[in-house]
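Late entry, pyridoxal-5'-phosphate complex.
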Amino acid sequence: MRRATGAGRSLEDALREAVRSGRLAAGTRLPGSRALASDLGLARGTIVRAYTQLAAEGWLTGSPGSGTHVAHVNVPGPSDDDRRRECAPEKRRWRADLRPGRPDLASFPRTAWTAGVRRVLDRVEAERLDYGDFEGSATLRTSVATYAARARGARVTPDAVVVTAGFSHGLALPARALRGMGVRHAATEDPGLARHRELLTAAGLTCVPLRVDEFGADPAGLTAETGVALLTPAHQHPSGVVLSPARRGEFVAWARRTEGFLVEDDYDGEFRYDGRPVGALQALDPERVVFAGSVSKTLAPGLRLGWLVVPPALRVPVSAAMRESGGGVSVIEQSTLADLVARGDYDRHVRRVRSAYRRRRGELADRVAAVTGLALVGVAAGLHALLPVPSAEHERRLVAAGEYVGLRLQGLHTSGYRHPADASAPAALVLGYATPPPHAWSQALDLLGDVPAAEGLRAGPTGTRR
Ligand SMILES: Cc1ncc(COP(=O)(O)O)c(C=O)c1O
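Prediction complete; structure with ligand written out below:
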């Protein structure tokens, strides 16, 4: 557990910065120590010590009975540059990031990648640097076909593979293709990523929610108008459940019966910690399932590299959508990835980060249990886990408390996973455990230990729940 001084220091830093930047104007009355302690889930003594320290430094004034106010501090007003920095969300000084959806970027295999780029540039003929095929380079398509079959059990030949700029780009392609073929409705998981619904909507499709329970997405939500369903079968994002064998069968039967399609988002299929990952749904019917992979979780999202395995009936329209999008991925990046896969460097890297993420997941579960008495939800897989909380309001307060201590958090409601938005739907923090670089991991856990503020989330004689 983090020492009490850690939380106090974070609070002091945050308040000092707020006064210095003018966000807290001179004369503003601060909440009473009891109220703030309850809001942040900190001991009242921690708040009192922080107020006392800041008063001693001249940032705050206070007298018994009249409350604590922001002092008239003579600091230069924020410059335009400061204001710009303040407004840019990415520039806020976060001390740790436990959002889901990102790997540990510090573990990117720079040495192997650099050596791969050098090998590629040493041997690539000048003509191959010309505009390439829209579907991707033959080398990478072959390499993806072999890899997807070996690692994920997909049924795939190189001509079915289309190289994309990551999953998001990949999703937009069948979406546009299907819309062009007359499809109007796409079923999407609830909870599910808002970004993916946006992409489907931008392609002209209407998103219809599929409820997710302990067996994964429920096909009962499919309607006569649904032409495609987007699923995360190996590890539902974000709930963390695996699509059950019965449901897999039902989705495939629906697609066959209605001549619909399934898009399988295999975004973290490589990361299963308690046994072998379930194989690709696509293997059940390569004619009706678009399989989609990406290196965003295994290597880095900034590479913008992914792939689709496209059923025969969609190949021409998907290639057309690719052409229309003006798309294509750098030949050098494609060849480098193929080179790393061929040499075994890619698999070695995945094995290495998998064991680091497995360990982190265990440490996160232990810390959460120690602090809240609660257990994480979801199978031991991927780069995130769910921490259910009693309500959307608890969730909002926890995310806000995280912000106070500099810890970046996301929740089902606060991050738009729910559709339609429904404040009474179950709430949870979606804790990503991959992102902090190794040197910052224990600090991230410590900060998380400071956060479970909202009542009912503290371990203790009365509040303990398992
Ligand atoms: C559910 C899900 N699918 C896919 C991806 C990968 O998207 P991309 O390859 O566009 O980075 C992510 C990334 O966060 C994700 O959360």
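The two ends are 19 Å apart (CA to CA). Will revisit in the morning.
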